[in-house]
Amino acid sequence: MSVAFAGNSATTASREAGPLRVMIVDDSVVIRGLISRWVGAEHDMEVAASLRTGLEAVNQLERINPDVAVLDIEMPELDGISALPKLLAKKRDLVIIMASTLTRRNAEISFKALSLGAADYIPKPESTREASAADIFHHDLIQKIRHLGARLRRKSAVASPPLAPASPAPAPRSPVARPAAPAATVQAAPSGSLALRPFSNQAPKVLLIGSSTGGPQALMALVGELGPVIDRFPVLITQHMPPTFTTILAEHLARSSRRPAAEAVDGESVKPGRIYLAPGGKHMRVARNGADTVIALDDGPAVNFCKPAVDPLFISAIDIWHGNILSVILTGMGSDGMRGGKDIVAAGGNVIAQDEASSVVWGMPGAAANAGICAAILPLNQIGAKVNRLFAGDRS
């Protein structure tokens, strides 16, 4: 019996041990051409197909058998949000990155796509002729493909990837090998093997949270458990996310927490009872204004390739709350938050990192864990309870 993807099992195993196969689905020939060139220039990935519609992607998925799909939202015949569940029904471990322009409608659709199984989203520049916007799109897209694809292969090395068969008796697929990491990538040690610091005896007076890839889902789950903390202490969040998307995220956080949540406004007072979210495209810091603590938004250059970035928030908070800070670093690519976390620990505060198994990408929390600054490394579903206990006076 044959299976619904090309090649015999030996060929398939050999191919999966090589470059990540990327399927590009976009009705814009310019975008397809750009992404194809970028992917083709990387040593650890290749273009598996370049398609114009979601219908083509669904109909050809078994033949192409990609690892990652970059899926546009707005396309003729079958749009991205309609194609998404059909693709995942055929290959449930397919990594799908939704691509869209920066409109409120597309931001809302991107959030819906995450709830339907998309791995991540990426905003497309309104004009590819703008060099800086194209450079950011290029950098972010390649990093998302690489890190999310590598995570897929780590999981697939343990569990055989389930591509839907064309017949009832598919041939078994060989376990796939993890591709070699790029030279610039630092591999994190497993979270269970890392040393932890004791929790500081200083009582936290503020909760700071940083997140990136996988962060929206993690944040919505976490804030739903933090009502007692939000009611009594300020909560400030930096999520790597563009404008418009942060507006929608704030609305989701308000619903999840059942507490006020909004994009922070420059100069507003920081008080208990609400969640302050860094707005897309601006760094969020805190500062003194007389006896008040206020939000200070900064339109300066990107930090750690990000704007907003976590480090500016973490570092600025030390001048206000000194060592009375609890910071949480959730799932995300890169190492943003690690430098600021070091400074928080040096001032007497604490850092909690999400563990590797529950993270979409263990970059940011892994960097903090490997730096030895964490007092706890926990699964996402245990972080809320731990935070509540710490603010209630437990220092263990």
Automatic annotation (TrEMBL):
Stored PROSITE patterns: CHEB, RESPONSE_REGULATORY
Cross-referenced InterPro entries: CheB-like, CheB_C, CheY-like_superfamily, Sig_transdc_resp-reg_Me-estase, Sig_transdc_resp-reg_receiver
Extent of Low complexity compositional bias: 174-184
Role according to the record: Involved in chemotaxis. Part of a chemotaxis signal transduction system that modulates chemotaxis in response to various stimuli. Catalyzes the demethylation of specific methylglutamate residues introduced into the chemoreceptors (methyl-accepting chemotaxis proteins or MCP) by CheR. Also mediates the irreversible deamidation of specific glutamine residues to glutamic acid.
Keyword Hydrolase (UniProt): yes
A biological process from GO: chemotaxis
Domain CheB-type methylesterase: 198-387
Active site residues according to the UniProt entry: 212, 240, 336
Family listed: Belongs to the CheB family.
Recorded GO CC terms: cytoplasm
Residue numbers of 4-aspartylphosphate PTMs: 72
UniProt-recorded name of the protein: Protein-glutamate methylesterase/protein-glutamine glutaminase
Pfam families: CheB_methylest, Response_reg
Keyword Lipid biosynthesis applies: no
Transmembrane region(s): none
Domain (Response regulatory) ranges: 21-139
Record's subcellular location: Cytoplasm
SUPFAM superfamilies for this protein: CheY-like, Methylesterase CheB, C-terminal domain
Annotated spans, Disordered: 159-184
Domain text: Contains a C-terminal catalytic domain, and an N-terminal region which modulates catalytic activity.
Record's keyword terms, sorted: Chemotaxis, Cytoplasm, Hydrolase, Phosphoprotein
